[in-house]
């Protein structure tokens, strides 16, 4: 299982229609075939400047790879993410067994 996460900050004013529209477009990614456990999250901590997060899981590397090249994901990245996100960090996790 792969957990794909991204924390980000939008260029839009908080609470604006543009912010809401972006988050709705991001939520649509939850319907892509290999996406599981999708969450759109609001940052409440004070340790960084990010305001939102997305988290989702994939059953396998193949499922994650399929998501990355899916036409709807690519379209979202090109038409929404790149023009509207001012900063982000992406983290992808697999479970680590502790010995």
Layout: helices, strands, pairs:
Layout (H helix, E strand, L loop, with lengths): L1 E9 L6 H11 L8 E7 L9 E7 L2 H9 L1 H14 E10 L5
Antiparallel strand pairs: 1-3, 1-4, 2-3
Give a quick set of tags describing it.
4-stranded antiparallel β-sheet; Alpha-Beta Plaits; about 100 residues; globular; alpha+beta; 3 helices; about 35% helix
Helices and strands, in order, run as EHEEHHE
Looking at how many chains there are and whether they match, the oligomeric state comes to single chain
Q: Tell me the name of the CATH class.
A: Alpha Beta
Shape, per Cα inertia axes? globular
N→C terminal distance: 19 Å
CATH topology: Alpha-Beta Plaits
Strand content: 25-35%
Q: What Rg do the Cα atoms give? A: 14 Å
For the sheet with most strands, the description reads:
4 strands, antiparallel
SS-derived structural category: alpha+beta
Uncertain parts:
none
Domains, number: 1
Mean pLDDT: 96
Give the helix tally: 3
Could you give the order of strands across the largest sheet?
2-3-1-4
Helical amount among residues, as a percent range? 25-40%
